[in-house]
Each structure stands twice: as structure tokens, then as C-alpha cells.
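Researcher: Here's the sequence for the chain we discussed earlier.
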Amino acid sequence: MNAAPASGQRVVDLFAGPGGWSEGLRMLGLCDTGIEIDPAACATRTAAGHQTIRADVADYPTEPLHGKVNGLVGSAPCQPFSVAGHRGGADDIDLCHQGLDDLARGRDTRAVLRAACTDPRSLLVVEPLRYALAVRPEWIALEQVPAAAPLFVHTGSILHTIGYSVWSGVLNAADYGVPQTRRRAFLLASRSRCASPPEPTHAKDPGPETLFGPALSPWVTMAEALGWGYIQRPAPTVTGGGTRTGGAEPFGNASRKAMRAAMENPGHWAWKRPAPTVSGTVGHVGGKQSGGHLNLQPDEGAVLQSFRCGYPFQGNKGQRSLQIGNAVPPLLAAAALQSLVAADLGVAA
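Model: Thanks. This is the structure I predict for it:
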């Protein structure tokens, strides 16, 4: 671990990816050290200025971190439990629960359980508990797809027995300013504060201002986030094509007509609500119920995930798309973290 940042907080980010948690921490004036195995994601983190250890979280020893970590964040790979994946995790859920119980009893049976899993990645969901039991950070924040929520409840019950206040539940990213109705399970735990869910900043139907305070902001729509409209729409990507803007618009040819129609039609669903969940393929969002697929480029997926403009994703298009879709949205990460770390930063929760 490097020297602590000015705030005095040392944070470890498990399965750090391209930096969703890191960017959320940066919004709060904090930084982390990420542990990540994917070379493209590590390159992205380096380009973005985030400290990184390239290693397998499951093999990395916890001893070097003992007594040096204030906060622990992490998003274990979601593919085993995601509806977009093969759902091998559904077959492995009992093995994951057993892994959590075994760790709580001081027994490391991960190798045996992993070999029995339909998808060996399923057991990675127990790694945050392994680190938490060994390191005992002041606070913990974890994120996963909703299907893994029962494992967070189990993890939380174990943390509670060793002195943590714990909250777990499902949050909608759109309620925190992310232009996407992405629902994710969270576990928040603290040894010094009462863990609780973050207060929403946005709402689908904000309602009027009341005597108790101003109304919430409305959800950020997909069109608003991407800057669509006759006046505010930027020119397409400049290329060597020789047309008025230098080349074709940055959308797949198959869906260019649908995209143009959506951009120029305020009645389209994308003008009325946030995007659906951006997946690891980015590509298509929407569907028949939403008025048709819209084929996005990785940079547009990054906007819908609330990454800062120009975030330096590295790798080929597929690698960038995978990093974007699998990351926790930075705005959602910052919202989840603020109540855990606010007292240490000297700001209101």
C-alpha cells in the first residue's frame, strides 16, 4: 500500500475494473488502490490515474493489508448471477453460502468449493468477506446484481456478529442522477456509524417543493445525457470520410435510421426516461417495448454510466464495452459511499 491520501483514508478496491468505485471515491476527495486481473482494465485505471495492483483477488494475500486499510469496496464479477449471463451462479448459490459460513468459522474451503461450482467465478462473491475478516476495515461497500442479494444478506449477518452496522438492499441508479434505470444490490457496513441507504437525489415523479424541503430532481433522460436535439446535438465523430462532418455518424449502420429518428423525436422514449441497463456489450439498448434498439458506441455507454467526459478506456471496442457495462456507475458509487465516509471527510452525510 502507498502512503495514505490527505484525508487519511486508505481504501482497497476489489475487482476494481476500469474505476467505477475509484471515480466515485474521487468525487468525495478520496482515492483507492485497486486489485484487478484484466490487463485492459488495468491499463484504463493507469491512464485515469488510479493506483492498481495487477493480481487475482482470490490469490492475493491479505496479510500485507492488515492494519493499513480504512475502507473496502468491491464488485465481484456479476456474470454468474446476471440475467445477461449463463446464470451458473444459480446452481452454485448453496456453495457460495457454504463458503461464507466456512470463512466465518475460520476455515478456508474455497478451493474445494470452487471445483464443485458450475461456474468457478461464482465463488468470487465470498472474497470480500475473506478480506473483511482479515483486515477489519472501518467501513465496507459492495455491489452486485440483484440476484446475488441473498448472499449480501448472509455476508451482512456475519459482519454484524463482529461489530459492524450493516444495511443491504437494492438501489436504482436513476434515483442518484445516473441516466440509466440500473438496479443493483448493495451492502454497506460500518464499525463506527449506523449504516443506511443513501437518500435519493432524483425521482421519476419528483413532485412539488414542500415545507420540508425542495423537490427532488427529475430522472435524467437518455436524450438529455447524450445531448440530443436539433440545437444542442453535437456533430458526429469527425473522420476521413469527406462528408460535411467528415464521415458517418458514430452509430452502427443497421440502426442509424432508428438512432436519427430517436434523436430528432421528442416523443421517443429516450427523451422521456433514462436508458435501460447498459450491459457489458453496450451495443443495443431498448427493445420492442422501448420503441426499438439503439446501437450505442462505447463512449456513449460511458456517459450513460456517468463516467466523466473523456474517461480514458483502453483496449479494443469489445474490451472497452465490457469494462463500461460491468462497472458500478461512479455517481451511484459516490452516493452509496458518502454516508459511510462523510464524518471522516468533515462533510454532512
